[in-house]
C-alpha cells in the first residue's frame, strides 16, 4: 500500500501549533530562569560554602546528572502528592525541569567561578568593596560571561528536553501533537511539522543568545 | 488502595528490565559509533557538498527533540508499508541520533590532529581514506575517548525516552509497577538508583580520562 501524504488538514490547524510553540517557550523560559538562579546559588555554595554545603550540592549535581529527566519528572509528578503537595501537570513539569537544569547550570557556572583569579577578589576587598558587591560584580557577572556559550547551549538542550513532559500530559508542543495525532491519525505528517517547528525555535533561540551576548557583554576584558 | 505491595519480586522485575535499557544502549553505542565514523569522515571530506550534507544531518539531529525523532521513525514505518514496532524503531532512532553526536565528537578529535600529519601523509602518496585510516584516526582515537565515555552516560539516560513508544525497558516497567503498587517514592527511587548505578561509574571514568588524556577543552554534549 502506498502512503499518501496529507499535510493540508494538519496545516489548517496552525493556531494549535502556534499555541504549543508558545507554551514550549514559556516552559523553557520559566524553567531556565529558575534553573539559572539555582545554578548561581549552587556554584557559589559549591565554591565558597562550608564543607557540608559543598558536599550536599555535589550529591545533588551527581544524582541529577546520572539519572534520566523522564524518571525525575515521574518522581516529582507522582511522589509529591503523597507528601501533601498537589501539583498540576504544568507545575510538576516546571518544577522537574528547573531542578534538572539547576544541576547542569551549577556545574557550568562552577567552572566559571573557578576561572576567576583569587587576586581579583583580593583586589576588590582592598578597594573596599562590600561582600554583596564583590559577589555580584567580581564573581557572578564575570563567571556568567566566561561560560556564556556553555550556558546558552544548555538552555537550548532544555528547550528540546521540554518535549519529555508530554509524558505527564503537560501542555506543550509535543503533547498537542500527540492529541492531534489521536484525532486525525496523520501521525507521520504531524511529527514532521513538529520537528520543523522545534528546529526553527532552536535556531531562533541560538540567534537571540548571540544578539544578547553583544548587548550584555559590551565591555572589554 | 493498591493492587499489590512493592516487594522483592517487584524489585527483581525492575532490575531485570534494566537489561533492555542496557541492550538498547549497547545497540546505540555500536551502531551510532560506526555511523559516527562515517559522518566524521564526511565532515572533513575534501568535497564541500559532502561536508554540507553531514553538517545538515548533524544540525537536524541536534536541533530537534529525540522524542520527536523517535515518533517520526515509529510512525514513519507506515510510510514504507510496515507495521510500527517499538524495538526496531527505537534501535534505528538511537543509532541515527547518537551517530550525529559521535560524528561531532570524532570530527573534533580529527581536527585536533595537527595539519602537518595530513601534509606528511599526502607527500608519502597516501589517498584521503588511507590517510584517515592509517594516520589520523589512530591519533584521534585517544583524544576522542573522554567525550565518548561521557556521551555513553547520555545514551543510557536517553534510552528512557523509548518507553514513550511502548518499549518495555526500565522506565516503562517502572510506570507499570507504580500503577499496580502506587508506591511512587519506592518505585522511582529504586529506578533512579539503578540508572545511577549504570551511569555514575561511566561519569567518573569519563572525568578521569579527561584529566589524563583530554586537551582540557570543554565539550557540552548533554541532554
From TrEMBL, chain A:
The keyword Transmembrane helix applies. Coiled coil: none annotated. It comes from the Bacteria. GO terms for molecular function: transmembrane transporter activity. The chain crosses the membrane at residues 27-48, 157-178, 190-212. Keywords: Cell membrane, Membrane, Transmembrane, Transmembrane helix, Transport. Belongs to the binding-protein-dependent transport system permease family. HisMQ subfamily. This is Polar amino acid transport system permease protein. It comes from Kaistia hirudinis.
Amino acid at each position: 500500500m502506498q502512503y499518501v501524504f496529507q499535510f493540508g488538514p494538519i496545516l489548517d490547524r496552525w493556531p494549535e501549533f502556534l499555541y504549543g510553540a508558545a507554551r514550549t517557550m514559556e516552559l523553557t523560559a520559566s524553567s531556565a530562569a529558575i534553573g539559572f538562579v539555582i545554578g548561581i546559588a549552587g556554584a557559589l555554595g559549591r565554591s565558597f560554602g562550608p564543607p557540608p554545603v559543598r558536599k550536599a550540592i555535589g550529591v545533588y549535581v551527581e544524582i541529577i546528572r546520572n539519572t534520566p529527566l523522564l524518571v525525575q519528572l515521574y518522581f516529582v509528578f507522582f511522589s509529591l502528592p503523597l507528601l501533601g503537595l498537589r501539583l498540576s501537570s504544568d507545575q510538576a513539569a516546571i518544577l522537574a525541569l528547573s531542578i534538572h537544569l539547576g544541576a547542569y547550570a551549577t556545574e557550568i557556572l562552577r567552572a566559571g567561578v573557578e576561572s576567576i583569579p583569587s587576586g581579583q577578589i583580593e583586589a576588590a576587598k582592598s578597594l573596599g568593596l562590600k561582600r554583596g558587591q564583590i559577589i555580584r560584580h567580581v564573581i557572578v557577572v564575570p563567571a556568567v560571561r566566561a561560560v556564556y556559550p556553555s550556558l546558552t547551549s544548555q538552555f537550548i538542550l532544555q528547550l528540546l528536553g521540554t518535549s519529555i513532559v508530554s509524558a505527564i500530559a503537560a501542555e506543550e508542543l509535543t503533547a498537542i501533537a500527540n492529541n492531534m495525532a489521536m484525532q486525525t491519525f496523520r501521525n507521520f505528517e504531524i511529527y514532521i511539522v513538529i520537528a520543523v517547528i522545534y528546529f526553527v525555535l532552536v535556531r531562533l533561540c541560538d540567534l537571540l543568545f548571540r544578539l544578547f551576548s553583544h548587548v550584555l557583554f559590551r565591555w572589554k576584558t | 488502595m493498591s493492587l499489590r505491595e512493592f516487594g522483592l519480586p517487584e524489585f527483581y522485575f525492575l532490575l531485570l528490565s534494566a537489561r533492555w535499557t542496557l541492550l538498547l544502549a549497547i545497540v546505540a553505542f555500536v551502531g551510532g559509533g560506526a555511523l559516527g565514523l562515517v559522518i566524521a569522515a564526511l565532515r572533513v571530506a575534501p568535497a564541500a557538498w559532502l561536508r554540507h550534507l553531514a553538517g545538515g544531518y548533524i544540525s537536524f539531529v541536534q536541533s530537534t527533540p529525540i522524542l520527536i525523532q523517535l515518533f517520526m521513525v515509529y510512525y514513519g514505518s507506515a510510510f514504507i508499508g510496515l507495521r510500527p514496532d517499538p524495538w526496531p524503531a527505537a534501535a534505528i532512532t538511537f543509532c541515527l541520533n547518537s551517530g550525529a553526536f559521535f560524528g561531532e565528537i570524532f570530527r573534533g578529535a580529527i581536527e585536533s590532529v595537527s595539519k602537518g600529519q595530513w601534509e606528511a601523509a599526502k607527500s608519502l602518496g597516501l589517498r584521503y581514506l588511507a590517510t584517515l585510516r592509517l594516520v589520523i584516526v589512530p591519533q584521534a582515537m585517544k583524544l576522542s575517548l573522554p567525550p565518548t565515555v561521557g556521551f555513553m552516560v547520555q545514551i543510557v539516560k536517553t534510552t528512557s525516552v523509548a518507553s514513550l513508544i511502548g518499549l518495555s525497558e526500565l522506565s516503562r516497567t517502572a510506570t507499570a509497577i507504580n500503577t499496580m503498587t502506587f508506591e511512587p517514592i519506592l518505585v522511582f527511587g529504586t529506578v533512579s538508583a539503578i540508572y545511577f548505578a549504570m551511569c555514575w561509574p561511566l561519569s567518573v571514568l569519563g572525568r578521569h580520562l579527561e584529566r589524563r588524556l583530554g586537551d582540557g577543552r570543554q565539550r557540552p554534549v548533554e541532554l
